[in-house]
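hi!! sorry for the late reply, been swamped w classes. u asked for the two structures so here they r. pasted raw, havent cleaned anything up. first the sequence of the first protein and right below it the tokens
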Amino acid sequence: MAIGVSPIPSPRFCFTCSSTTTLRFIHPRRPAFRPKQRPIISMSFAGDSSSSSLLGVSNDAGLKITSSCVIGQNDLLIVGPGVLGRIVAEKWKKEYPDCQIYGHTMTTDHHDELMKIGVIPSLRESMTTNKFPYVIFCAPPYQTTDYPGDVRLAASNWSGEGALLFTSSSAVYDCSDNGFCDEDCPVVPIGRSRRTDVLLGAEKEALDAGGCIVRLAGLYISSLQFTITLFCVMFCLGNYDSIITVFMTLYSYIYTFYLNICYLNYLYKDDRGPHVYWLDKGTVDARPDHVLNLIHYEDAASLSIAIMKKKLRGRIFLGCDSHPLSRQEIMDYVNQSGKFNKKFICFTGTDGPLGKRMNNSKTRTELGWEPKFTSFPQFLGLTG
């Protein structure tokens, strides 16, 4: 996955109902006195299958649970089911409602959360003979001392059907002068940077196994907190039933909204992205004219799924919104949006490397894919 920005506690992101960025899970229900909670991703355990093999699943207490399962033709293994992996899981489940989704993790810290969103977790080192038709590797390199080896291990869990996808970073492209960069741009030579050496080594493992690569630009996301203001004005002289209808409709909207926000909290808990770090700092010692490229986590997930569904072999794709912005432009948009309770002050740097201006039109044309968030200002509701 794209590397470089660690999650940092930050001011929450707020939208009004009129914002162009909406919560896709919200579907108002018919008025009812007792709206029923329905799981958005149902937890379907592998033991429901008619045939069986053995799969080890470790829970948060460290206990090893053995479930019987059969691996289906659309089942997915997510290695590193963090923010990106969880959104991939949610979208994959919508594409294939009857599939099983599995997650390999380094620790059991988030196994309860994963099970609540329909992902069957297990520790990476758990012994399993299962081979999965679809495998996506989303784990970052900073959690391990042998990143290429981890990708090799993940590839060994692939059956050779479906697709194997490694989510890499656009940092491997050799461009640092704010110049143009696309899928065919040369990569950083081996030996120049340890960071890119590790990424390129991991990419090689995936390609050698017949998998594909998606090099992602800077990932970002914000927790969606809406300020809901509903004005219901009715003149209903003696019409008591209509008053009840108003309040029950309002209750149904709010209740559904609450359930969906609770579900989103299982997908991600922190705002992420370069703007989050800079906003928290206020003043940053970096040059303001450095050009960055971004892609929303949702779009990175939908792009990953589009690649896997094509069942391609040995291909490299680029994930970005094709709307490069300088650091200064990004933070100007943040301040203009009025959606944060802090204001960014300034960048003070005057030297250092520049960035790149990326365009992934070739990726879009081949896959028939387009991002939901076409640019960072569009995400903030500043453009149509």
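now the second protein. again sequence first, tokens right under
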Amino acid sequence: EESVNATLKAEVLTRSSHSSRTSYAVATDLSEIELKKILIEKMEGNKSIQRSDE
């Protein structure tokens, strides 16, 4: 029973620390993901351009 309580406390602590992250930090994470998507799309686009040149 003690271990269950400890697990619950840890869960609550991690959740509260995550929710305390500022919206700015979340927005930064989102923009990083978007940038990575754009980069991947550009790289894939470059590959298809190179193939058509051959």
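hope this helps!! also noticed smth abt the second:
The radius of gyration is 21 Å.
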